[in-house]
Amino acid sequence: GPSFEDRIYVFTPQATVIELTAGATPVDFAYTLHTDLGHRCRGARVDGAMVPLNTPLANGQTVEVVAAKEGGPSLDWLNAELGYLKSPRSRSKVRAWFNAQAMAGTIARGRELVEKLLQREGRTAIKLDDLAAQLGFKGADALFEVVGKDEFSLRNIEILLRPAPPPEPEDEGIHLKRTRATEGGVLVVGVESLLTQLARCCRPAPPDAIGGYVTRGKGVAVHRLGCSNFRHMAGAQPERVIAVAWGEPSGGSDALYPVDVLVEAADRSGLLRDISEVFAKDKVNVTGVHTQSVKGPGGSTAYMTFTVEVGDAGRLSAVLRSVSQVPGIRHARRR
Is pLDDT larger for residue 247 or for residue 281? Predict the structure, then answer.
């Protein structure tokens, strides 16, 4: 350890002995007593007389710190030539304070950029911690930090916030022909269903509760009743809503319906292969895959959308359970 010559011993006004590095200053003394006192140190009395803060202290002196109520260290203290600090520990405490200030500035800049984006997208109601979690960050500050450092593109947030594309534009005029497919005013899906098409925004499948919406030129679009697009259109033009029901498939063939499955996982090599193997094992046909990887401080997060064909939506829960067992999967759900 340090020899006696490397140390000096001084007193507080209450006569407590404080051990310091030889050549230590009143600022070192303040930091030895308490980090916060060091930050707020503005002057010092040695044996009752005011002295400059870069005065080297000597054995046996009584040192009293004059501190501001609040505030931080001076950048001058880190300039070795000015002699304010002798102790490496004091120096690291001053550096830590300035680093924290810089970090606070970075986080504030990131927060401002994210909040401006949410205003542009009309999504100011979203909780910032929830948004950060969806992007794979531990909390909002972690997201703001990488945005503030320009290490994370705001485009990733836009992609997450943008809802599914609205239904395709509608053309003029449609008259519902009464065929065997309409029974008692209820249009039956799957029987001579030239008139019906399954909406791509919510991809209904039996036994989902469904509603129909008469489009222009495209027949009746069949939506899940909970679909936000359907609720919006039904609210705007209720006269276009028509009751629909699932029919029994004709000719004994099992009809298959496309359904979207959303998967969020810690990204790794072989992830797509492992999930595809689960679908294959469960004899579920995959007709489309869209994947996106978002880098975060805790590694990359993969957001994947699989379009799969199922005879009925009820079968999907067993498949989702299997997918959830794949290592790294955070959650798998139907869109």
Answer: 281
Take residue 29 and report the two structure tokens written for it. 């003394």
Collapsing DSSP to helix, strand or coil, 289 comes out as: strand
The full set of domains in the chain, from first to last, is: 4-86 (3.10.20.30), 101-161 (no CATH), 182-252 (no CATH), 257-334 (3.30.70.260)
Q: What gap in Å lies between CA 129 and CA 137, rounded to an integer?
A: 9
Token pair for residue 43? 């002057």
Distances (CA, A) of 258 to 97, 105, 275, 280: 56, 48, 17, 16
The contacts of residue 294 (CB under 8 Å, 6+ apart) are 135, 136, 156, 300, 301, 303
Sheet holding 186-189, edge to edge: 182-183, 186-189, 244-246
pLDDT at 5 over 80: no
DSSP character for 249? P
Q: Evaluate if residue 179 carries a pLDDT over 70.
A: no
Strands, E assignment, 232-312: 241-242, 244-246, 257-266, 285-296, 299-310
Half-sphere exposure (Cβ direction) of 3: Cα atoms closer than 13 Å: 1
Predicted local confidence at residue 7, as pLDDT: 93
Q: DSSP for 113-180? A: HHHHHHHHTT-TTS-HHHHHHHTT-SSHHHHHHHHHTT-S-HHHHHHHHSPPPPPPPP-S-------T
- Give pLDDT, residue 186: 55
Over residues 39-68, mean pLDDT: 97
Q: State in Å, rounded, how far the first CA of the chain is from the last one.
A: 65
